[in-house]
Amino acid sequence: MEKLSLNDVLQYVEENIGIFHQKRISSLDGLRLTQVLKRKNPYLFKVKYVLTA
Fold first, then answer.
1. Which has the closest alpha carbon to 53: 34, 37, 32, 35?
2. Domain residue ranges of the chain, discontinuous segments joined by +
3. For the chain, the helix, strand and coil percentages under 3-state DSSP, each to the nearest 5
4. pTM
5. Is the predicted pLDDT of residue 50 greater than 80, yes or no?
6. What is the pLDDT of residues 14-46, one digit of tens each?
7. SS3 state at 19
8. For residue 48, with 0-12 CB atoms within 10 Å meaning exposed, 13-18 middle and 19 or more buried, which class applies?
9. Residue 38 class from Cβ within 10 Å (0-12 exposed, 13-18 middle, 19+ buried)?
10. What CA–CA distance (Å, rounded) separates 53 from 40?
11. What is the model's pLDDT at position 29?
């Protein structure tokens, strides 16, 4: 396996970091509380003894 050039990595990150953050922001914009709560398991909180958010 070839070693990665630091300059190549820097160039790749600079080109794609904006796209990455834009996707994260758009997914957070569409997030709703009901979607988050559907993914949570209340029994797991009870087992772990989690009392606060």
1. 37
2. 6-48
3. 70, 0, 30
4. 0.54
5. no
6. 999 999 999 999 999 999 988 888 887 777 777
7. helix
8. exposed
9. exposed
10. 12
11. 94
